[in-house]
Amino acid sequence: MSVELLVNVTPFETRVARIENGQAEEIYIERERGLKGNIYKGRVQRVLPGIQAAFVDIGMDKAGFLYAGDIATAKQPALELSEEIDHGDDNEVGDDSSASNQPRRNAPPIANLIRDGQELMVQVSREPIASKGPRLTSQVGLAGRYLVYLPHLQHTGIARRLEDPVERERLLAIAHAIAPDKGGLIIRTVAEGKQEADIQQDLDYLLRLWGDIEKRTKSAGLGTLIHKELNLYLRVMRDYVDAEVEKIHIDSKEAYESMKKFARRFMPEVSKRLYYYPGERPIFDVYGVEEAIESALKRRVPLKSGGHIVIDQTEALIAIDVNSGSFVGSRNMEETGFKTNLEAVHEIVHQLRLRNLGGIIVVDFIDMQEDENKQRLMEVLDEALKRDKTKTHIVQLSELGLVEMTRKRTRDSLGRMLMKECGRCGGIGQAKSPTTICYQLFREVVAEARAYPCEKLMVIAHPSIIDLLLSEENQGVLQLEEFLKKEISLKSDEDFASDHYEVVLQ
């Protein structure tokens, strides 16, 4: 598989696209520097024993949310820590131990761990999403190229994606050999094949960084940012570049030089894969990424066969509907549905990655009767999801043809980042019909005429509504005048929205 990374840098925005076999599969956007990985000196605002969590003030508009299971204690089992810790951007690209979205069930009572008003060093483990503040952890972790250093935990772990038992054994031996007196280590996926000297150099850098953080913490005030995570294009170097990535194209000379310098210091083998793109045509246009982003903001996604899928994102879940559309090329309905479903699977996985959709996902496939087709569909879906490095879990196909699955939420989806709720329709994607507005207007005319004395009334509305009142609904206006025994005049105003009107008493 051919994989390239495109880095588009402007003064107002940085964007990264992962291109697989010529198609944009993942988009990362940074307009303001993200919070994930930042370390703050915070203060506990309120402990909530009922949900084993607390709000922590880190000097922002929204307080951070800290679960009991994310509070570092000396008695935490090493195995659980290796599964729960979520540091840096590892989980966005599937590099290291995945963090659960839920707090650990066997955590001690939070009231025994922290108290209201307590000062606490915390790290942002998940960006604010929608109306939720950032998720925090006191299990601070500093991500390097090959290691994550855990200053508060005596633990040695290794990324789950490193599957070769011999290599795991070798790297764990290195980790134990170089382990510092204080703190623990997690070996990252990109450490595969690296020698002890390379890993030791990475650890030395992280220990120096932690020393600086400790010094700043002593003199820092509450709510102070103590350590800021790298910007997006340098996180690309640290977290997104793996053995699959063949080339990295950067359209900013400054960013290119910065990434070159970073590569020479921490990852010299990647330095030769960096290419400066000086072309006049925008790099995202050259690779079709802008077009892919535009299509990812639409509900309806066409399939090559003539079918299509419809994607709706709600607050709680993602609903995906598969339709055969104009595809009628098979011998019977069963085969038509099966072929459309198979084609839809690959497009659904592509859209999940491209749009970064997370949470509960329900897919309504076209009904199939044969068990063999249902089993084959689930096998294809499972295989397609292996390309997605974000953690997913599938529930088997139901009798109604629904597939329930979850995909880890790491940051806002592309749609929520690039779009806002429509001010006219309130986000529902539909507006009242002109006839509905006319009848609503009639009711208000009656209410106003009965509530206040007047001789006649004037209705001011958008020209499209006035035209309807003078044509199809003219009989209704005449009946209303007879009913109220009052004259009703009509006036159009192009400055009015189509669903806005005024009733003026005269």
Q: Could you describe the 3D structure shown?
A:
This protein has 506 residues and is of the alpha+beta class. It has helices at residues 78-84, 90-93, 165-178, 196-219, 232-240, 253-266, 268-271, 283-286, 289-296, 333-355, 371-385, 414-418, 434-451, 463-470, 474-484; strands spanning 3-9, 14-20, 23-30, 39-48, 53-57, 64-67, 119-126, 135-137, 142-143, 147-150, 156-158, 184-187, 224-227, 245-250, 274-276, 300-302, 308-313, 317-323, 359-364, 392-394, 402-407, 456-461, 487-492, 501-505. Strands 16-17-18-19-21-20 form a 6-stranded mixed sheet, covered by helices on one side. Helix 13 (434-451) crosses helix 14 and helix 13 (434-451) runs parallel beside helix 15. The radius of gyration is 29 Å and the shape is globular. The N and C termini lie far apart (74 Å). Mean pLDDT is 86; it is low at 77-103.
Terminal residue distance: 74 Å
How large is the count of helical segments? 15
**Uncertain ranges:** 77-103
Radius of gyration, whole Å: 29 Å
Number of strands: 24
Relative helix content: 25-40%
Question: What is the topology?
Answer:
Blueprint: E1 3-9, E2 14-20, E3 23-30, E4 39-48, E5 53-57, E6 64-67, H1 78-84, H2 90-93, E7 119-126, E8 135-137, E9 142-143, E10 147-150, E11 156-158, H3 165-178, E12 184-187, H4 196-219, E13 224-227, H5 232-240, E14 245-250, H6 253-266, H7 268-271, E15 274-276, H8 283-286, H9 289-296, E16 300-302, E17 308-313, E18 317-323, H10 333-355, E19 359-364, H11 371-385, E20 392-394, E21 402-407, H12 414-418, H13 434-451, E22 456-461, H14 463-470, H15 474-484, E23 487-492, E24 501-505
Parallel strand pairs: 1-14, 6-8, 11-12, 14-15, 18-19, 22-23
Antiparallel strand pairs: 1-2, 2-3, 4-5, 4-7, 4-13, 5-6, 7-8, 9-10, 10-12, 16-17, 17-18, 19-21, 20-21, 22-24
Helix pairs in contact: 3-4, 10-11, 13-14, 13-15
